[in-house]
Design goal:
- The structure holds three protein chains of three kinds.
- By secondary structure, chain A is an alpha+beta fold.
- Helices cover 32% and strands 17% of the residues of chain A.
- Chain A has a five-stranded mixed beta sheet, with helices on both faces.
- The N and C termini of chain A lie far apart (51 Å).
- Chain C contains twelve helices and 14 strands.
- The longest helix of chain C is centred in the C-terminal third of the chain and has 18 residues.
- Chain C is globular.
- Classes of the chains: A alpha+beta, B alpha+beta, C alpha+beta.
- At the A-C interface, strand 4 and helix 3 of A face helix 2 and helix 6 of C.
Amino acid sequence: MPITVSMTVNGKAVSASVEERTLLVQYLRDHLGLTGTHVGCDTSQCGACVVHVNGRSAKSCTMLTAQAEGADVLTIEGLAKNGKLHPMQEAFRENHGLQCGFCTPGMVMSALDLVKNNPNPSESDIRHYLEGNICRCTGYHNIIKSIAAGAKAMGGR
Amino acid sequence: MVENGIGARTKRKEDARFLTGKGTYTDDINRPHQTHGVFVRSPHAHARIKKIKADKALKAPGVIAVLTGADMVADKVNSLPCGWLIHSKDGSPMVEPPHIPLAPDKARHVGDHVALVVAETRNQARDAAELVEVDYEPLKAVVRVGDADKPGAPLVHDQAKNNICYDWHLGDKAAVDEAFKKAAHVTKLDLINSRLIPNAIEPRSAIAEYDSANERYTLYTASQNPHVIRLLMGAFVLGIPEHKLRVVSPDVGGGFGSKIPHYAEEAILTWASKKVGRPIKWTAERSESFLSDTHGRDHVSHVELALDKDGKFLGLRVATKAAMGAYLSTFASAIPTYLYGTLLAGVYTTPAVYVEVKALFTHTAPVDALRGAGRPEACYLLERLVERAAWETKTDPVELRRKNVIPKSAMPYQTPVALQYDCGDFVKNLDDAAKAIGWASFANRREESKKRGMLRGIGVSHYIEACGIAPSAVVGALGGRAGLYESAEVRFHPTGSVTVFTGSHPHGQSNETTFAQIVASKLGVPIENVEIVHGDTDRVPFGMGTYGSRSIAVGGSALVKAIDKVIAKGKKIAAHQLEASEADIEFKDGVFRVAGTDKQKAIGEIALSAYVPHNFPHETTEPGLDESAFYDPKNFTFPSGCHICELEVDPDTGKVAILRFVAVDDFGNIINPMIVEGQVHGGVTHGIGQALTEACVYDAESGQLLTGSMMDYCMPKADDVPSFEVATNVVPCTHNPLGVKGCGEAGTIGSAAAVINALLSALAPLGVKEFDMPASSHRVWQAIQNASRKAAD
Amino acid sequence: MYSFAYHRPASLKDAAATFKKGSESRFVAGGHTLLPSMKLRLVHPSDLVDLGGVAELKGIKADGGTVVVGATTPHADVARDAKVAKAIPALAKLAGGIGDPQVRNRGTIGGSLANSDPAADYPAAVLGLGATIKTDRREIKADDYFKGLFETALGDGEIITSVSFPVPEKSGYAKFANPASRYAIVGVFVAKTKDGVRVAVTGAGPCAFRHKEMEKALAASFKPDAVAGIKVKADGLNSDIHASAEYRAHLVTVMAKRAVAACG
């Protein structure tokens, strides 16, 4: 049964008719063309699909589009403003916090969620907060550095 | 000096698109009018396919076609080929059973491809796949490699007696037997190198389309080597000539070897796209990846080391059973032989080495390359053995190694297992690592841990690897069915920017940056004006792709050769314009200069005049500035290094925490230290994964995969690893123009043994002597229990 | 995922009525267990009744004696709530260790309890604190709620509305997590309440259970050493590729010790 959904994605109001079983990630990728949000697993472990829903990080592969009705959704595509990277994105670039790039959007979105709740995270805070994101390339070393630097650039001490 | 040249910590060119969500991975691509494919996969490890009924599926909403093995046979589709022919001890060629991409008669592992359902949407295809009725006759399966050649074991292929694919050996058996006769001490070990599932975070994905107007196919696929796929699928499987087949590998989200092979899905989709007359897209769900991506490792070995009374190694004897899985994947046969047996001298002067490898079929997913491919298995076996020998002879493990390490002065060094190391300073790697970790003061730290109730251990792993597998002539003589060169084309545009076309394929390795740095250094062009093009057989002349840490050593060398041709041609043009002899023209930092004068031309001016050839040496030179080169290496490159791990075990729970990890590596010259460090971090973590958490578990009877999701197959997360302490020790490679060796796999090769040696060091006071990976809390706790039970008896 | 009909009622009454209409209806809140199972086609509901629109089910209240957590309150809210942290810090800590941050942002206490996964964390707190589960039909005592593997006292279509936790004198939770899924291989919740000591174990058995011998030992002396010598029987405990029954039995003692230590 198709259903109609409306929400705000990266500041823009969007509305569509989708199959009820459409996951939020499928809506973002297939209907809105926002392919920066990735799917890496089917059991909610890898975190490549992390977006923000109403200001909180969520795995968009474990949410129905219908559950995001009326929500404010932020994806990796919504971070850079006027061609300028967000400080967290810039910190990943500066610190080589990515290699193949596939887990990166989810990592960045999780990092922003962390900083929102903990503006001055320690190395251990960061490592612990990434328990829902898997990276197979970097060994996390430079991701941790990136997030620490990003937090600082965003106004942490 | 140019900015961002060789040696600079240049920030990556590829990052802006990945960080803004603008990367283009295969699943991000959609083709007009595309359909969706879903595979019906075998739920049985071994079963005869008696009948397939598709009528219900065909009537389901949106279904366009259901295709089976019978359709493939009718269309005379060929087997997926294996790229390396190995000969057994007796000279007979390995057994190469047929592998039609859709199984026509029998399913041979859980997840084997039985049918393809094509529908308008992915959901429709998935719904209909459940309506395909397959009548299976389940048969007994053999799952464990250790059981595969036992009498009476079920056969995976009728033509492979006792499931043996080949029974290979290398080295001088008589010399080794002689060495053991003279031994003062013999150390023996039985080791399992656990099966791993690669799990690149991007699942495999492909879109195939057929253009009937031009009779041309295009395959988009998440592959490490698009030209190899074009060659294998085009020429061998589907009979499509190269000029009628384009293979594109866009951004690829990690490979680690699992995206090297030519997979059944690629051939099935390409074949089906013509039958259906529309593009077909397929993206693996993760549970499919677990079942159908090639796996890695899976060895069972017995190994013996002979030492003299002073602790000098006299001889090494290795017998290994290596799983091939249900079918021979593209490079499967080469891995436990030429990438494993040849590495068993390690960094040591052991004069006699003999290795036997029996490759066996099992009813499991095919085994192929996984980060390091063969070399981690060799290093793990050797370094576990050396550590054990040190323990048995009551020698300090660092001292025992130092006593047996090949000195720098012995280079080039011919090993008893075919390889000739060109250079390396293994003693320095060892000393630097031991110093960095504080080897001498470990006892104090162990005491401190003990006060907190924790068991602390330290472990060394001293590795060498062989990268950039080559030269082609030697590879051919050893059974390789492909050349192992690389190509590069440097296209200088009229207004001074440069496009490089490379056959290397980055999927995390950062070639778009490092290759541009090489261009910047050699041609004096700012990296902003350099674009690196890869991954498209229609754009790049040819290529062998990226695996075996070969990009910089082979692809980078091809690039240098092409650059040299550009400079040579530029000199001719400059000589003409500057009215000097070609021999007097010097080139440096982007400027051609008449030696000893101030007469000069910038390379941009030369490029423009090559395309606007008004004042041009037409008699000797053609217009244009576009040069290509192929580079076939003279030898392998030999990165080496020493890893030392320090960890703590919580004896109450068995939980292992890695406290420190030091890696001192020799990768030869380094193009970008930032990127090299990143490769080491990732590689080490992959090895720690094998050591601590990762293991593929099949049910030994049914062949069902028990670790079929990320809920059960545990990859390291951020809080499982520490920050790493890495350093390099540069000994330039002697035989390639950049002096580089390669760094992608080293971390994985060295790290697993360091971790397990550290674990055994921690558990030694409790009497634990044997341990097979992974060191999950449960297994460590069990080992402690067993040891204390033994002590009580 | 199979096809289904989706409903988003705005009231509890509508939710119950909508549920009744479907042949194989399921409620969904955060969906962090149900949706992955649906994606793997392990479950096939005819109707999905989303409780996310029922405002009355969400929120945390605390008075002197109890903390009441609304059924659709996500774990992250419980973990970060100042009232919970003050009244029952172990509950906040438990909620902050469930799954991963994204699971905590979406997953709910009601969903966790209705599903009653043998390795879920919340059952340990509910049983360990002697909580009361309130539904749209009745109140169920924790001791009467967990019935077996994925089995609870809930009737068909019964909706958990909130969970009421009595504030203990002190309490602690220690969990040994599966490194891949972050579910509990073993989790032990210990509470010293005015009615006595309660020790609840999750992860080890088919559902959460109390360990009476440990409760007795701790009633006599509320110290980690009091449970250190208690050997838990492995019979009937869960056994899988991650942990044998013997290992789980051993971990129950270790985690109980740590939970008591965490009580401060």
